[in-house]
Structures are given as structure tokens and as C-alpha cells.
Design brief:
329 residues; alpha+beta; six-stranded mixed sheet; five-stranded antiparallel sheet; 8 helices; 20 strands; 26% strand; globular
Length: 329
């Protein structure tokens, strides 16, 4: 099943069902009004949503219309909790090497995770407004799980059952501000812009055999100003989604609608498959050439992120957005 949130001027938008081929959509508000209420009441509404999904795919859904992803908000335009991890060891290993960082002693057994801002989440085609190019604007392509309520103490074996939907994200980072944030010991704040989410969220079964062992075994394709930048395989997660969920729920409950991200997609063979963020490419250049040469983003630059199934069909639709100067008054 594929779901999306249509912008309607309200903070949470209106829940819509989207056809498997991403061509049509129909309002699901007669079943439940928003994505948040759907996640909170999943066992009660999932059957009716699936019936509507089947009808839409068969061309029998009353009120169906062509899908325009520019009208979509983030699946959850605001979320109770946005937690982002660093689940790909290749990314962490490279940055530790480049910057001479001491690796965390439990780096292969305990995930790194920070609490992001869930109050202002961007739709896939929204511009990304930021105050200054001097802040080192960077994209970060990743995958995200949308969870129902997760009880404290949930084990890895129990965790996958709490994943209701999956989508993509562009977790914008401001590299020039990151070191200052980290020195405080309180985590990222000013160095993170608003996060963008894919236009459509899908139930794990939509991925078929690509969804296994708590991972999505497909590449994520990233383009910067229409030029291919990378296509790393998401299946190379060092920590599965189940491990990330269990880690987050060790000492507290997670509310329905919690978002958990993988962090930047990265592979050991990054020189062949490319990267999912500029910082990683610059780190490779520093190792190979002695200095980074790829600049960070400029205002007007566009980033496109998309995942395709084995038949070449888009799964979530595309994140396709421009970075612009914020209108700060």
C-alpha cells in the first residue's frame, strides 16, 4: 500500500492513497483524516485503506485524480519524534580516517543516533530555505521508517512489526556549523536544516524480496543539478532498522508516528557507486588527492533522490527540490 499527505493549508494535511504506479491518488479522509491518525489507529483502518488501494489500482476508486507530487507535503508534515542514526559503517569509517577521530568503542554494536526536529518537515518538491551559502549546505540521502507505538524494551526480534511505512529523506546538513554543535556535547542543532521526506510512504510488502533482514536491498539514486552523484546500495546497513528501533526504545516508549532514519547511505566501494552526500565525496578527494575540490551547495542548486524497483519503477516517487535563500526579516 502507498500513502501520501496532500497539502490543504492545515498543519497535518489530508491523507491520500496513491496507486502502485504513482499515477493516481484518492482521498482517504472518509476512513481516517491524516497520516498521524492512520498510524495511531493502524489495526482499525489498515483493512479499509487496503480496500481503497486495491480499488484505485483497479481503476474503480470514486474521486480518483492524477497524482501531482508538487501538491504533497511530507507524509508526516510534523512528527512527535524524528530520530536519525548513522547506520552505515562505511561512512563513519571514512570520516574517522579523514579527520583523525577516535572511533567510539562500541561502534559496531551500539548505533549512533541523535534527536532531530520534527516540527517543520518539508515535502519532496518544497524548496529548502537556508540563511547562508557560507554554512556549507549539503544534502544527505537516506531511508526512513515510520513506526506505530513502540513499547520501552522492545527487542530487535520484535521491532520490525512496528514498522508501518517506509520512505526516503534528504537530511540537509550545514557542515560549517557541525563542529561547533558537536563541541557543545548536546548534539546537532543549528547545523541541521529542515528535513525533507519522500512524497509517498509505502508498506514494507510493496518492496517485495528487496525488504529482508530489516533492510531495503536496493540502491538509492542521487542527482545534483541533473548530474548523477551516487547510487549506493541501502542493503549495506551495518545496523538494521530493527536494531535502530530497539536502541531508541531501550529506556522509553516511542510514540506512534515516530520517524527513524538510517543516516547517509554509504557503501565500502564508494569510489565505484558514488556517495549520498557531498561531505563524503570531499573526504574521498582528501584521501585520494590531498584536498577536497567539490564545493558545497549554492543557492539555486537542485537535488533529486529516487529509488527504483528491479523493474525500473519508482517506489516512493522523487525528492526533487531546490536550495534557496531564506527570506529572513
Amino acid at each position: 500500500m502507498k500513502l501520501a499527505t496532500l497539502k490543504d493549508g492545515s498543519p497535518d494535511g489530508r491523507l491520500h492513497v496513491v496507486s502502485r504506479d504513482l499515477t493516481h491518488t484518492v482521498a482517504a479522509t472518509a476512513i481516517t483524516p491524516t497520516m498521524q491518525t492512520a498510524i495511531e489507529q493502524w489495526d482499525l483502518v489498515a483493512g479499509a485503506l487496503m480496500d481503497l488501494y486495491d480499488a484505485l489500482n483497479a481503476g474503480n476508486a470514486r474521486g480518483a485524480a492524477a497524482l501531482d507530487t508538487r501538491r504533497l507535503a511530507a507524509p508526516l508534515p510534523r512528527a512527535w519524534q524524528w530520530l536519525d542514526a548513522s547506520a552505515f559503517h562505511a561512512h563513519g569509517d571514512l570520516l574517522e580516517k579523514v579527520f583523525g577521530l577516535d572511533p567510539p568503542p562500541e561502534k559496531r554494536t551500539v548505533p549512533l543516533m541523535y534527536q532531530g526536529a520534527g516540527d517543520d518537515l518539508l515535502g519532496a518538491c518544497d524548496d529548502v530555505p537556508l540563511p547562508s551559502e557560507e554554512d556549507g549546505m549539503d544534502f544527505e540521502a537516506e531511508l526512513v521508517a515510520i513506526l506505530d507505538r513502540v513499547p520501552m524494551g522492545t527487542t530487535v526480534a520484535q521491532a520490525d512489526r512496528h514498522i508501518r511505512l517506509l520512505t526516503m529523506a534528504n537530511d540537509t546538513s550545514l557542515r560549517a556549523l557541525a563542529a561547533k554543535d558537536l563541541r557543545t556535547g548536546f548534539g546537532f542543532l543549528q547545523s541541521k536544516g529542515a528535513t525533507t521526506f519522500g512524497p509517498v510512504a509505502v508498506t514494507p510488502d510493496e518492496l517485495g524480496d528487496a525488504w529482508r533482514d530489516g533492510r531495503v536491498h536496493l540502491p538509492l539514486h542521487i542527482h545534483w543539478n541533473d548530474a548523477a552523484f551516487g547510487h549506493p546500495d541501502c542493503g549495506a546497513m551495518g545496523f538494521s532498522f530493527g536494531e535502530l528501533i530497539s536502541h531508541a526504545a531501550r529506556t522509553r516508549n516511542l510514540a506512534a508516528g515516530t520517524l527513524i532514519g538510517t543516516g547517509t547511505i554509504s557503501n565500502e566501494n564508494f569510489r565505484e557507486v558514488g556517495s549520498a552526500c557531498i561531505a563524503e565525496r570531499r573526504a574521498i578527494e582528501l584521501v585520494d588527492e590531498g584536498a577536497p575540490r567539490t564545493p558545497y551547495l549554492k543557492f539555486g542548486d537542485r537535488v533529486r533522490i529516487e529509488m527504483f524497483d528491479t523493474d525500473g519503477r519508482s517506489i516512493f516517487g522523487a525528492i526533487d527540490q531546490a536550495y534557496v535563500r531564506a527570506d529572513i526579516r
